[in-house]
Amino acid sequence: MPQTETPGIEADRRPRLRWWTELPLILMVYASYSAGRLLARGDTASAVDHGLAILRIEKALHINAEHPLNRLFTREAWLGIPADFWYASLHYLVTPAILIWLFRSRAHVYRAARTWLMTSTFIGLIGFTLLPTCPPRLLSPGYGFVDTMAKYSSYGWWGGDASAPRGLGGMTNQYAAMPSLHCGWALWCGVMLWRYGGTRLTKVLGVAYPLLTAIVVMGTANHYLLDAVAGVVVMGFGFLLAPQVMKAADRIRARFEGHGSLVAARSRDLVPGLSRDLASAVSHDTSRATETSIVSGGCQTSPGERIPRQRESQLGTGAEPGASPTDAGDGAPAPAR
After folding, report:
1. Residues with Cβ < 8 Å from 2, sequence gap 6 or more?
2. Tens digits of per-residue pLDDT, 127-156?
3. Taking the alpha carbons of 33, 131, 232, 83 in that order, is the dihedral positive or negative?
4. Sign of the CA dihedral with 167 first, then 172, 175, and 181 last
5. How many other CB atoms are found less than 10 A from the CB of residue 323?
6. In terms of Cα–Cα distance, which of 207, 223, 239 is closest to 175?
7. Which of 100, 120, 169, 253 sits at a 20 to 30 Å CA gap from 138?
8. Which tens digit of pLDDT belongs to each residue from 178-222?
9. CA-CA distance, 11 to 242, in Å (whole number)?
10. Measured between alpha carbons, how far is 144 from 140 in angstroms, rounded to an integer?
11. Is the peptide bond before 179 cis (omega within 30 degrees of 0)?
């Protein structure tokens, strides 16, 4: 079936990108994502204030869906435990898997899709920095939330510090809740599956994955509903900015490639000049060698006046051309009688 393009993002028509250039770029973005989450880790008071403000807004609007979901996941372990595994792992597995799938099978849209994801991620990092937010699970027990990942930590590799492996909780930012990039990345995965999967199953997964992720992040008390909404908004801004980011990247690349082409052209221009200089030097040396080789008997002649060796010897002895050696001049000994 014909390949479709994501609206608002132009598909890449250039040759397919190489994995050895893409992998460092993806790793750099992920490292920035991990480092950015740590920037506001010490601002606990502001984070708690922001979290309570979000909770008050949701209650005023009667949209605090995280309360009933968290009570359900806390009461029903068969829901809470799989949800914890979902939150702790799929965010880091599904997104890279879809990137690889696009790179290998949908190269015409890979660059645009990757740029959309990266742009949105950097916008999310700005949100983590400017608006540190305490998630529901870290509020005091009086607010009615239970940290399901701490409750069921004996079933997984994580401890009481969100989804971090045991002993590594100090390396995470517990207050990077707004926006929810769990929901944002899940939405991106859903769009890719829906538009480029090509089967009914992938379309179903494209709808189910982001919706279930939103339920999981609220049921495990890791995010508020407005965190999930903010994650969708961030992806929307990234979607709109991605074409401009690609154009800027193309301009930068063209500038560097143009500089490289100029250097190569100058190098090519030097080659004919060097060849002419070498040819001139060789010709000059050959002429001098020719002039030197025609010097004979202390008499120098110009090129074109060189005398054959036989005639030269005959003239030197005074013999006529064509005479035999016995016809020598007066100085030759007389033949024996």
Report:
1. none
2. 888 888 999 999 999 999 999 998 998 887
3. positive
4. negative
5. 13
6. 223
7. 120
8. 999 999 999 999 999 999 998 999 999 999 999 999 999 999 999
9. 11
10. 8
11. yes
Q: Which two tokens stand for residue 9?
A: 């993002």
Amino acid at 278: L
Please, which residues have CB within 8 angstroms of residue 318's CB and are 6 or more apart in sequence?
A: 328, 329
296-309: per-residue pLDDT in tens?
444 444 444 444 44
User: Which phi and psi angles does 165 have, rounded to 5°?
Assistant: -60, 155
CA gap 321, 133 in Å, rounded: 117
pTM above 0.85?
no
CA pseudo-torsion sign 74, 188, 102, 163: negative
Per the CB < 8 A criterion, the answer to whether 296 and 312 are in contact is yes
> CA-CA distances (angstroms) from residue 130 to 36, 126, 201, 223?
11, 6, 39, 17
Q: Does an H or E element contain 266, and which?
A: helix 225-293
Q: Which residues, including other chains, have CB under 8 Å from residue 120's CB and lie 6 or more apart?
A: 181, 184, 188, 234, 235, 237, 238, 239
- Helix (H) or strand (E) holding 23, with range, is helix 19-36
The shares of helix, strand and coil residues in the chain, as percent rounded to the nearest 5, are: 70, 0, 30
- Token couple for 49: 């204030």
